[in-house]
Amino acid sequence: MRIGLLSDTHIPDVATALPHQLEAVFHGVDLILHAGDIYASSVLDHLERIAPVLAAEGDDDYLPRDRRVRPKHVLDIDGLTLWLLHEFPFDWRFVSGSRSEGELAEALKFYGSDAPDITIFGHSHRAIVRHAAQGMLLVNPGSPTLPRYERCLGTVGILNITSGGAEAQLVQLE
Q: Where are the alpha helices (DSSP H) in the chain?
């Protein structure tokens, strides 16, 4: 399964619409996951013309009820558990690498067998793909409209899931 990833679009506050480059990058994806701070349901409507969409509710989202938006989605895709949420559920220093893998493994024990194989999140506007403790894949696709809180073209992600494995890549919009 090929999945398009984005977060922190902040439309219409920082841009009037999604960058047109998204359509080419997401061409042929099976699903699009938006990791929150959407601001307007029209963003999800636009994305849904490309592929089905699920979204995490961001800390700045005050959207009307929308079947696509939840605080957290838990998906099972080809035997892998994927969490989609806005804020990373553990100490951010695990993502940045300033906390040890052992400390993340210890934090994951709290979730037991419910710990995800893949965590997709946003909030920081900083793109990252990292394999962490116990093989967990961490992906923050950054923001296509406000990367590192700068108004310019940013990044999105592509997640490829095959039976038992997952790989993610970041795509800089040009």
A: 21-25, 41-48, 93-96, 101-108
> Averaged over 168-174, what is the pLDDT?
97
Whether a cis peptide bond, with omega within 30° of 0, leads into 12 is yes
Which is nearest to 125 in space by CA: 99, 154, 96? Answer: 154
Does pTM surpass 0.85? yes
Q: What does the domain layout of the chain look like in residue ranges?
A: 2-172
Q: Which CATH class is domain 2-172?
A: alpha beta
How far apart are alpha carbons 146 and 153 in whole angstroms? Answer: 7
Could you report the per-residue pLDDT of 77-130, keeping only the tens digit for each? 999 999 999 998 765 555 656 556 666 666 666 566 677 899 999 999 999 998
- Max CA separation in the chain (angstroms): 43
**CA distances in angstroms from 169 to 74, 129, 172, listed in the order given:** 21, 7, 10
Report which residue type is found at 151.
Answer: R
N-to-C CA span, the chain: 25
Averaged pLDDT for residues 166-174: 97
Give the 3-state secondary structure of residue 166.
strand
